[in-house]
Specification:
The complex is a heterotrimer of chains A (298), B (290) and C (414).
Chain A lengths: L8 H42 L1 E4 L3 E4 L4 H9 L1 H32 L4 H9 L6 H12 L6 H6 L14 H26 L2 H9 L4 H29 L3 H6 L7 H11 L3 H26 L7
Antiparallel strand pairs in A: 1-2
Chain B lengths: L1 H43 L23 H4 L7 H32 L5 H13 L2 H14 L17 H25 L3 H9 L4 H30 L2 H6 L6 H8 L7 H24 L5
Helix pairs in contact in B: 1-11, 3-6, 3-8, 3-10, 4-6, 6-8, 7-8
Chain C lengths: L11 H8 L6 H8 L35 E6 L21 H10 L3 E7 L2 H14 L7 E5 H9 L12 H6 L16 E14 H6 L19 E4 L2 H11 L11 H16 L3 E3 L3 H6 L5 E5 L2 H5 L4 E4 L5 E9 L7 H11 L2 H11 L8 H8 L13 H5 L1 E2 L6 H14 L3
Parallel strand pairs in C: 1-2, 1-3, 5-6, 5-7, 9-10
Antiparallel strand pairs in C: 3-9, 4-7, 4-8, 4-9
Helix pairs in contact in C: 9-16, 13-14
Chain lengths: 298, 290, 414
């Protein structure tokens, strides 16, 4: 349309620059509004609920009461602890398993690189729930793993079980989040210029030295991203603890789910969620500082 | 100096052995670990679970080979409806979040404007928030719209149902779409657009004829990601679904009383379709989508 | 927002015809002349517009069959196709009773086993009830104590007795005149049952443990192989009996509850879990050796080596009741369903599969003709010595209830 109507270059530029200041906001508006209404507002509202008292029947009033926090924290310290221990252990395990795998794929994958990567992300193509149920079958008391150990080899006593123990919960978390660790590690490792390592060897660094001084530091952004992608969802998970655990292995996610969905106790659910979120944020910032990485918002 | 060389050599040999022998073996084992549940799912989709033959209702032990579940993949009350709802929600959430996310991605990579840092943080935050927190806070918001003081002041987004699930899915998908689209746009050569403009194309034409085709693979990758996140989501959905079933919600409910092999069949079909989609896009672009 | 479930399309002429049918005797009339007809869409009362609530007095029930009827029930609580019934005629997992209802009234029924225990199900519908919005369900099944609370909160639709002649005539006398709803204005019983002990005979004998005969025997089995119920009235009730305390809400004290807590806590520390109706999954997987269970489930839905015992100390007795939650979109159809399952042959068909105690007069005779020998099944017809030891721990004074809830929450780790 503009091509058919001659406009002086100056006017056009002015029009375009005005347009240029409006356009980005117009493009942002719908999506950002969606996030504001359905992410920011709920989180803010959750905070308001956390300082309210009341019940569904009587209605909730903002009383600026911190009861939900004090009660939640004093009562559920153990479950917070479980989340930290299970989530932390699972994160460390995924790092220990994931690093060698990512390293191998990045440096020794050769023509199988794509196939191997594909196999790493294959679990994403099945349902999270079905995968966890599969583990329940595999780790079951009479399942393919324990059954033979009990009845064929007779190594284990009949009441031995893996399901309902912390080990099963940690195993489930480790399994479910392992690809989240491997992928960012691979991306970071793959970027490393192999000539840097060769140069180190040329300068008589041992392979271990080269790894410690060059490969690992360059992989740190991947370690950072992978740790976050594993630790955050693991801390907030309740499905693994529910399907593979017992009351003894309740994580804070189970408590929040119970308070919200079973007791309609929104103030406590909100306070616990808020503590969890704040705790994770603090941990992430501290971790970022330790690693000295600014990759966070990249 | 000379004294330290020998031990270094031997650690070097050890490292070399480790790298050449142990690492590949370890990797294969680790990948096997990742694939075991999928293999279990696939194998057990061929299990016979016929209560009238004394197999019970749970697909936990192997009974006999049967094609029954594959021949009748929706043969369990409620499964068809749940799956249909899941597909519908995933398609709609994908369309919604891909449009909204792509627009944000365009704005972030192509324009300089105030508040960019804040927008980046706002995009990042949902990915760093535990699903549980997003689900419960959104659930509380929806409930609150039906209670005083919000009631009447804002549209009531309650009782839970398809629309609340859809709102939640679009919300958590947007960030992933933005990140994926941004990655594609980051390597975009603006000179191509300038060339088109120089040749007399207006902005609109330039966008549709030059820009869009170039970023289209990125948009498709984002849409695929959004679809797979949506169809598999359980945690957030469980807080906002009410009486509405989706496939994961239905599975979670049915396993209390029965584990029909149809669950494995649907899981296997979803898996195979996803594999085919990825394989075909890999063949076309020559690299795996991210 | 388009709905993904296909709405049933129906021949308009028949629908309009049904609309014109008068108020009484509709069920029988429809049964005679409307097979295969479909749902009518959205009568005015079903609008979900915000702010719209159903008034304190029940709106006149539209006398049209609408659907799909959304029915939430407990696990293994209706006859399902399987070992006990004809597998060839219906799809696996479906229910002959539901299929017959669908055929008779030409309406879809969305029957879902959504109730795992009373509190967790109630929590899913409570926000809607408080806000005066439809819950999404037309028919729900709650145990006495919860049903009483719902009715007291005015969260149930008043049943139009003219639509449920079978219920009016066939409800067993023992279940009439409940203090919390004397005229059955809001509820009709679904089934009664007992809470006792269930076990897997194979697992116990393989590990050299005798089959339990008492509640106390559950304390002698490795706790990680035992589950108790999330339904606190059942677990606490049986635990009281185990300690030799009568489970009578009028006499139980806070100190008694504390003794129960102290008795169960060590088991929890060693891996005891609490389950709702999903204990069936654990039995299906051989994950539990013994558990607190409800009387009929193992017989209907578990393996051949899973058994229910009436513990020597006694059992807890309860009744689960059908209610129509406030704002139900298909109230009339829900009433038709209530009436349908109070037809003695249908009641017998259900009871003979689920092994619970039917509230329907005349069901006993029908069961005998359906399944000779069933009349001696103590699950269906508890003998006098069992009945003598049944205890009702349903209706607790507020203070006792709140103490119990606190202790129980602390036991179950959430």
């Amino acid at each position: 349309m503009r091509s058919s109507r001659p406009v002086s270059p100056r006017a056009s530029r002015a029009w375009r620059s005005r347009l240029g200041t409006v356009t980005p906001y117009a493009l942002l508006a719908p999506g950002i509004l969606w996030l504001l209404i359905f992410y920011v507002v709920p989180v803010a509202q959750m905070f308001i609920f956390s300082i309210s008292t009341g019940s569904l029947e009587t209605g909730f009033q903002i009383t600026y009461s911190l009861d939900a926090y004090t009660e939640g924290l004093s009562r559920y310290g153990e479950q917070f602890g479980n989340s930290l221990v299970y989530g932390g252990t699972a994160t460390i395990l995924t790092l220990l398993i994931g690093f060698p795998v990512a390293y191998t794929i990045a440096f020794r994958g050769g023509r199988y690189k794509n196939l191997l990567l594909f196999l790493v992300i294959a679990p994403f193509f099945t349902s999270f729930l079905i995968r966890t149920i599969s583990w329940k079958i595999l780790l079951g008391d009479e399942g393919p793993l324990l059954g033979p150990l009990k009845h064929v080899l007779g190594i284990l006593p009949g009441d031995a079980s893996l399901v309902s123990t912390p080990y099963a919960v940690i195993a489930g978390l480790t399994y479910n989040f392992l690809p989240f660790m491997i992928l960012p590690l691979y991306v970071a490792l793959e970027k490393i210029d192999i000539r840097l390592i060769e140069a180190a060897s040329d300068l008589y660094a041992s392979r271990w030295e080269a790894f410690r001084r060059i490969t690992f530091p360059l992989a740190l952004p991947g370690v950072f991203a992978g740790t976050l992608l594993t630790f955050i969802p693991a801390m907030g998970d309740f499905v693994n603890a529910q399907l593979l655990g017992s009351p003894q292995t309740s994580m804070i996610g189970n408590v929040i789910q119970n308070r919200f969905l079973i007791q309609n106790d929104y103030p406590t659910a909100a306070a616990l969620s808020f503590v969890l979120m704040a705790g994770i944020l603090v941990a992430v910032l501290a971790y970022a500082r330790v690693l000295g990485s600014e990759q966070l918002t990249g | 100096m000379a004294a330290t060389v020998a031990p270094q050599r031997s650690t070097g040999r050890l490292m070399r052995a480790l790298e050449h022998r142990a690492l590949p073996v370890f990797t294969v084992l680790a990948i096997g670990y990742l694939l075991v549940p999928i293999i279990v799912m696939f194998v057990f989709s061929f299990n016979r679970v016929d209560q009238s033959l004394g197999d019970g209702k749970f697909n936990y032990q192997w009974h006999a080979f049967s094609l029954e579940a594959w021949l009748n993949p929706l043969g369990w009350p409620g499964l068809g409806n749940a799956l249909y709802a899941s597909l519908w929600i995933a398609v709609m959430a994908t369309i919604g979040s891909t449009i909204l996310g792509t627009l944000i991605g365009l704005a972030l990579t192509r324009y300089a404007f105030r508040g960019r840092g804040m927008i980046n943080s706002l995009i990042f935050l949902p990915m760093a928030t535990p699903e549980l927190v997003m689900g419960s806070s959104l659930g509380i918001l929806f409930v609150a719209t039906a209670l005083p003081p919000l009631r009447g002041a804002v549209p009531t987004l309650f009782p839970f149902g398809i629309s609340t699930i859809l709102i939640a899915h679009v919300m958590f998908n947007i960030s992933y779409v933005v990140v994926t689209v941004k990655a594609r746009l980051a390597g975009f050569d603006r000179r191509l657009e300038e060339a088109a403009m120089d040749l007399g194309a207006n902005e609109w034409t330039t966008f549709w004829r030059v820009t869009f085709p170039l970023i289209f693979p990125g948009i498709m990758a984002a849409a695929l990601l959004a679809f797979s996140l949506s169809i598999d989501d359980f945690i957030i959905t469980s807080f906002v679904s009410g009486t509405q079933n989706t496939f994961p919600i239905w599975v979670y409910g049915i396993i209390r009383n029965a584990l029909p092999p149809q669950i494995n069949v649907i899981g296997s079909i979803i898996f195979l379709v996803a594999v085919l989609l990825v394989a075909s896009s890999t063949l076309r672009t020559g690299r795996p989508p991210r | 927002m388009p709905e993904p479930e296909g709405q049933i399309t129906s021949p308009v002429s028949r629908r309009t015809f049904i609309k014109g049918v008068g108020l009484t005797g509709v069920a029988a009339f429809l049964a005679a002349c409307a097979p295969g007809s479909g749902a009518t869409t959205a009568p005015a009362a079903t609008s979900t517009a915000p702010g719209m609530t159903t008034g304190p007095t029940a709106a006149p029930t539209p006398q049209t069959v609408t659907g799909p009827l959304k029915w939430a029930n407990w696990t293994a609580y209706i006859d399902l196709v399987g070992a006990a019934s004809d597998a060839g005629e219906y799809q696996p997992g479906s229910s002959p009773t539901i299929e017959q209802f669908k055929q008779k009234y030409g309406i879809e029924v969305d029957y879902e086993e959504k109730i795992n225990d009373n509190p967790s199900f109630m929590a899913t519908i409570k926000p809607a009830l408080v806000a005066g919005l439809p819950t999404g369900w037309d028919l729900i099944v709650l145990t006495d104590w919860m049903a009483a609370k719902v009715i007291a909160s005015n969260w149930a639709e008043k049943i139009d007795q003219a639509n449920v002649p079978n219920c009016v005539n066939n409800l067993r006398d023992a279940l009439r005149n409940q203090t919390w709803d004397p005229g059955n204005d809001y509820h009709y019983p679904w089934q009664s049952g007992m809470t006792g002990v269930g076990y897997n005979a194979t697992a116990l004998s393989e590990n050299g443990i005798a089959a339990p005969t008492k509640v106390a025997d559950l304390w002698g089995i490795p706790p990680n192989k035992v589950t108790f119920l999330t339904e606190s009235r059942d677990t606490v009730g049986l635990a009281l009996l185990k300690l030799g305390i009568k489970a009578d809400p009028a006499t139980v004290t806070d100190a008694d509850l504390q003794r129960v807590y102290d008795d169960i806590k060590p088991l929890v520390d060693q891996g005891l879990r609490f389950t709702g109706n999903d204990y069936l999954q654990d039995f299906g997987q051989k994950k539990v050796w013994a558990a607190m269970v409800w009387s009929g489930d193992l017989a209907s839905s578990a393996g051949e080596d899973d058994f229910f015992v009436f513990p020597e100390e006694g059992t807890m007795i309860w009744t689960d009741n059908m209610l129509i939650p406030k704002g139900a979109e298909n109230k009339y159809t829900a009433e038709l369903m209530m009436d349908f399952v109070y037809d003695p042959p249908i009641a017998a068909q259900i009871a003979d599969w689920i092994y619970y105690v039917s509230p329907v007069k005349g069901a006993a005779e029908e069961i005998k003709s359906l399944d000779p020998g069933a009349e001696s099944n103590p699950l269906l017809f508890p003998p006098d010595d069992i009945v003598a030891k049944q205890q009702n721990f349903q209706f607790l004074p507020d203070a006792l209830e709140s103490t119990m809830n606190d202790l129980f929450a602390s036991l179950s780790g959430v």
